[in-house]
Design brief:
- It is a single chain.
- By secondary structure, the protein is mostly helical.
- The chain has one domain.
- The chain is about 90% helix and about 0% strand.
- It has four helices and no strands.
- Helix 1 runs antiparallel to helix 2 and helix 3 packs across helix 4.
Length: about 100
């Protein structure tokens, strides 16, 4: 479950970066609004998957509401996915070491 969330976190974060740094300049710099339409939809769906998986992981690992809020907030910030992935990697390693 954590590894699925790690993957979605990275893909969602990259989609946000593409939306901000590729699609938006194409729309406003080159008058190509389709880029934002396509990338916006993709990012929106990925963000919904991110929030769903964040809630699932939060329940499984008994996160506090503050931890869940922090995870969702990182999903909204450019480059936040990289911080979240680092946290999730540590959690996955701890879970593996506990099961031995």
């Amino acid at each position: 479950m954590i590894n699925r969330f790690r993957i979605i976190s990275m893909v969602e974060g990259i989609s946000l970066l593409l939306l901000l740094f590729v699609a938006m300049p194409l729309k406003y710099g080159l008058d190509y609004p389709l880029a934002v339409t396509v990338m916006g939809w993709a990012h929106g769906l990925l963000f919904l998957a991110y929030v769903y998986l964040a809630m699932t992981v939060a329940e499984a690992f008994r996160w506090s509401q503050a931890q869940l809020f922090g995870a969702v907030l990182l999903g909204m910030l450019p480059f936040g996915c990289f911080l979240m992935e680092r946290r999730l990697r540590r959690m996955a390693l701890q879970a593996v070491s506990r099961t031995g």
